[in-house]
From TrEMBL:
This is Unannotated protein. It comes from freshwater metagenome. One of its GO terms (molecular function) is catalytic activity. Signal peptide: none annotated. Residues 7-56 form the Formyl transferase C-terminal domain.
Amino acid sequence: MKIDTVTSTNTSYEPGSIHILEKKLLVGTGSTALSIGFLTPAGKSRMDAPAWINGARITDGEYFG
């Protein structure tokens, strides 16, 4: 997976944890959370985070890895 358009936030979560807040995809890094705007899943086209959340059926609190 290729991650595009990332913004740092003032929120902190456990490293690798995934959080969905107001249709935003947040990923914990240990110090701050990153808000992911766009990403490209392996073998797929670039998409915005809300589209990926819907297609991947991710729930709040899951982990990357």
